[in-house]
């Protein structure tokens, strides 16, 4: 079932989204060569705690996962696409890092992700990051009243195709509100004019994950969580929680 949010609810989601943005900024700020991924998670957790927010990631166990997620942050490095567990791995010069964080505040949820490099970046990684950001921007730009979910999917996949990148076929964006994952699903592959109609008050997490090797297939690590490219190519992930409004898409996960 799709829940259409009131403007008051969207304002509350904006506050949850602000906490997410601040947590991501803190985690990114903590990232440097030699730093453990666990320390990025700790930085994000501190922001959540100080804001009085809880983590919808910590303890989350969807049907595909063998164990509950043990952190507030997903941290996925280089060929890891998404859902990486922030453990003892120490960041190295040139690593491409994708971090994804959620926050629940006063019963409302936000969810966002960013990718960046640590140390001296590889030019190809910067291009991949730019293309993934562009895919998110295009998806958000298509999230307008009168369009359908498929228009968002098509906008994202058009950018990915132009960049010759693949995207995991069965992971994408989602409705969001009281729960982190609500209906409708927001596929990253899709056809324009299809799917659920977008209307004022619909809140969505839009999240392209681009894989430089161009395949849509991916592997799952033995930990049951980490998604990885099948060819060892690099991956990037950007996500915002947005609301469809009569005056255009409203990004809820900005600082
Ligand atoms: Mg996310
Ligand atoms: Mg999400």
Q: Let me know the largest β-sheet.
A: 5 strands, antiparallel
What CATH architecture label applies?
Answer: Alpha-Beta Complex
With strands numbered from the N-terminus, the spatial order across the biggest sheet is 6-5-7-12-13
Query: What compounds are bound to the protein?
Result: magnesium ion
Q: Ends: how far apart?
A: 30 Å
Oligomer: single chain
Task: Tally the helices.
Answer: 4
CATH class category name: Alpha Beta
Number of strands: 13
**Which series of helices and strands comes N to C?**
HHEEEEHHEEEEEEEEE
Question: Gyration radius, to the nearest Å?
Answer: 17 Å
> Which geometry do the CA atoms define?
globular
Structural class: alpha+beta
Helix content: 25-40%
List low-confidence stretches. Answer: none
Number of domains: 1
Name of the CATH superfamily: Creatinase/methionine aminopeptidase superfamily
What does the model show?
There is one protein chain. The chain has 255 residues and is α+β, with helices and mostly antiparallel strands. It has four helices and 13 strands. It has helices at residues 7-30, 37-51, 123-141, 149-162, and strands at 73-77, 80-82, 96-105, 108-117, 173-175, 182-186, 203-206, 209-211, 218-220, 227-229, 235-237, 240-243, 250-251. The radius of gyration is 17 Å and the shape is globular.
């Amino acid at each position: 079932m799709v829940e259409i949010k009131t403007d008051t609810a969207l304002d509350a989601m904006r506050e949850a989204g602000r906490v997410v943005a601040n947590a991501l900024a803190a985690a990114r700020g903590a990232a440097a060569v030699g730093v453990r991924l666990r320390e990025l998670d700790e930085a994000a957790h501190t922001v959540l705690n100080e804001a009085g927010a809880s983590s919808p990631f910590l303890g989350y166990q969807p049907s595909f996962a063998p164990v509950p997620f043990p952190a507030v942050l997903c941290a996925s490095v280089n060929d890891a696409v998404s859902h990486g567990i922030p453990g003892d791995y120490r960041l190295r010069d040139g690593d491409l890092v994708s971090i994804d964080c959620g926050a629940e505040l006063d019963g409302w949820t936000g969810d966002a992700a960013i990718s960046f490099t640590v140390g001296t970046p590889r030019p190809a990684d910067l291009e991949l990051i730019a293309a993934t950001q562009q895919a998110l921007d295009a998806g958000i730009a298509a999230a307008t009243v009168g369009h359908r979910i498929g228009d968002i999917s098509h906008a994202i996949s058009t950018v990915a195709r132009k960049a010759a990148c693949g995207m995991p076929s069965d992971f994408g964006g989602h409705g969001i509100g009281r729960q982190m994952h609500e209906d409708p699903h927001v596929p990253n592959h899709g056809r324009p004019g299809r799917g659920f109609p977008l209307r004022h008050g619909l809140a969505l997490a839009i999240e392209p994950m681009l894989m430089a090797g161009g395949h849509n297939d991916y592997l799952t690590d033995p930990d049951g969580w980490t998604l990885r490219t099948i060819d060892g190519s690099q991956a990037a992930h950007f996500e915002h929680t947005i609301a469809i409004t009569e005056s255009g898409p409203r990004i809820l996960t900005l600082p």
